[in-house]
Structure formats: structure tokens, C-alpha cells
Write a structure and sequence with these properties.
The chain is mainly β. The chain has two helices and nine strands.
Length: 164
């Protein structure tokens, strides 16, 4: 009977905790622009090893740097409406990324939000015991907002002031 009374405060405390896994979109500075969220969720492969966890590409938008996309982080990038080219690259001085470049052209409209996901996973279908090298799946593509908000909420926004 005493155990029940000891657990009650713990249950009440946990019930009152705020939802820390909530995504709050970055306000646009200009209504004439679009906001693109570039995010890299945690790898879903089983086990402790996560592919390229300590590596990060530089994200280029129309040839200009938008920042680095680290593991389990996101970038919020305002862009002009129209066709924009996004490039995931390791071919810049400060990038820590070995895989080949991935690019995607996205057509944006003023006032809208877009979500682009970079996935890095182990290709478990091709892996053998003790062989992890070059056994990866890379994907960079748009994701509908209805799905993206559930993934991006578990990531942290990149603090661009800490880069360099």
C-alpha cells in the first residue's frame, strides 16, 4: 500500500512535464520568401554504431553555403521563390564528409515551408559480419510537412554561430 503512495508523486510529476520534442518553425524574415528546413535525423539502424555520425556535409543553395548539416540536426534556410538547387557536399574546406555529392532541385513558392531530409543509414542487406565499409544508403529528398514535423522535432537546430 505504501508503494502506491510513493509512486503517485512520480506519476504526477511526469504528467506535468512539457513536451520537449516539439518543432517550432522559424519565423520568416520576409513574407516574399520560402523557408526550407534541411534535416538529418538519427539513423534507424539497430545497434550503437550510427553511420557518419561524426561527419557532416556543407549544404549549398544555388552555390552559396547555407551551413553544415550535422547528425540529428536541422538548418532553416530562407530562399527566394523559384527553382533552387540544394547540394550536399564534402568538397569544401570545412566539410567533414567523404560521400559523393547529392543535389536536388526544388521549386519553392513565397510564404511556404518545405522540408528536405538527408538520410544516412547502413545498408544491412549488403553488410556481412565485420564489413561495414562502403555499405551505406544516402538519400536527400523533400518530405511532406505532415511527415517531416514528426521527424524534425527530434532534431536540434544548428547554431550557425558555433561553426568555424
Amino acid at each position: 500500500m505504501r508503494t502506491r503512495y510513493l509512486l503517485l508523486p512520480l506519476v504526477l510529476l511526469l504528467a506535468g512535464c512539457p513536451n520537449t520534442d516539439y518543432f517550432d518553425p522559424t519565423p520568416k524574415a520576409s513574407t516574399g520568401k520560402a523557408m526550407v528546413y534541411l534535416y538529418r535525423p538519427e539513423a534507424t539502424n539497430p545497434g550503437l554504431a550510427k553511420p557518419y555520425r561524426l561527419s557532416y556535409p556543407e549544404i549549398m543553395v544555388d552555390g552559396n553555403s547555407a551551413g553544415f548539416l550535422k547528425y540529428n540536426r536541422y538548418l532553416a534556410v530562407e530562399v527566394e521563390p523559384g527553382e533552387r538547387e540544394f547540394l550536399v557536399t564534402g568538397l569544401t574546406p570545412d566539410a567533414r564528409w567523404e560521400p559523393k555529392d547529392i543535389s536536388y532541385k526544388l521549386t519553392t513558392e513565397a510564404g511556404k515551408n518545405y522540408y528536405m531530409r538527408l538520410i544516412v543509414e547502413f545498408n544491412t542487406d549488403k553488410m556481412t559480419l565485420g564489413s561495414f565499409k562502403n555499405q551505406y544508403i544516402f538519400s536527400f529528398h523533400p518530405v511532406p510537412e505532415t511527415d517531416a514535423v514528426y521527424e524534425i522535432r527530434h532534431t536540434t537546430e544548428m547554431d550557425l554561430s558555433l561553426i568555424h
